[in-house]
Amino acid sequence: MTENQSHRLSVAPMMDWTDRHCRVLHRLMTRRAMLYTEMVTAPAVVHGDRARLLGYSEVEHPVALQLGGSDPAELRAAVRLALPHGYDEINLNVGCPSDRVQSGCFGAVLMERPALVADCVAAMLEAADVPVTVKCRIGVDDQDPEVVLPDFLERVSAAGVRHFVIHARKAWLQGLSPKENREIPPLDYGLVLRMKAAFPHLTICINGGVTSLDQARGFLAAGLDGVMIGRAAYHDPGSVLIGADALWGDGPGLDAVAVVEAMMPYVAAHLAQGGRLHQITRHMLGLFHGRPGARGWRRVLSEGASRPGAGLELIAQALAEVTGQAVGAG
Ligand SMILES: Cc1cc2nc3c(=O)[nH]c(=O)nc-3n(C[C@H](O)[C@H](O)[C@H](O)COP(=O)(O)O)c2cc1C
């Protein structure tokens, strides 16, 4: 499969959300979409508990590791250390506006330093045996995106990156929380489309505010190589991910009830290793979004899953809220 095809749809990197349990869940709904990890900083990879930070299940492929950092040597080292884990892609975060990230000169603030980003990706490419990609914004603060975005793409692609994911809004580095920075700066989809026209040889994926597969289809039809969906995929995976494989011409996979049933062995294995139910079910709360029984499903799981000893029977009980089947509370 070419790089372009595997990215027709992807699930965005989201800290605290797209952990390995979440990705296993998402993979049951789409065999095709590229799944991104939460951002892991290069210093954490170099100095931290790599088994915990980088471990994942084989079923998650294709899966991309997102790194945060701005020191070329450290990013190169992080890529080398990540290689044995077998990720399908390594992505550099040039879009995340959080304070913590800014203070380390990671993320969106790097939009102001394209030459440094070029050095970073060149160093990563020296070590990588898989594609190195970049996720960026259209600009930050008072930058003019029409000027800085093409310049950024030019310089970073000259260093060897062929694939960009563009979150189609600026990050305002002062005064907005990370959450506000995903909502308040206006989206400019037109600019991202113009970048694809200006750089037809690059793989350009669009991100920001996409909430449906129909919207994704529209962007693909308009010539973009892929669409990355974050919040909608997390909160309403039944609409966004079940059925997503049709973008590759594949038939539908499991429905939401079958997804829950298919999660059971994974949950059982997690519990058997001493894990907590809540660590997995918190990602499943949106599974029946908009369907009868969705509220009961959420309530049963949110109230019960953190209790000591909560197990598979709680999932069965929550599922009964949706399917209407009588089950014992276990
Ligand atoms: C809870 C949360 C955590 C996020 N963490 C990251 C991150 O680690 N790296 C990153 O590049 N973007 C991160 N983002 C931004 C998303 O990847 C995405 O760019 C943004 O949510 C816009 O896409 P959407 O409108 O489809 O959600 C995060 C977003 C959310 C909601």
Write the layout of secondary structure elements.
Elements: H1 3-6, E1 9-11, H2 20-29, E2 34-41, H3 42-47, H4 50-54, E3 63-68, H5 72-82, E4 89-94, H6 99-103, H7 114-127, E5 132-137, H8 145-158, E6 163-167, H9 189-198, E7 203-207, H10 213-221, E8 226-229, H11 231-235, H12 237-240, H13 256-272, H14 278-281, H15 294-304, H16 312-323
Parallel strand pairs: 1-2, 1-8, 2-3, 3-4, 4-5, 5-6, 6-7, 7-8
Helix pairs in contact: 2-13, 5-7, 7-8, 13-16, 15-16
Bound molecules: flavin mononucleotide.
Active site: 96 (proton donor)
Domain DUS-like FMN-binding: 11-310
Function: Catalyzes the synthesis of 5,6-dihydrouridine (D), a modified base found in the D-loop of most tRNAs, via the reduction of the C5-C6 double bond in target uridines. Specifically modifies U20 and U20a in tRNAs.
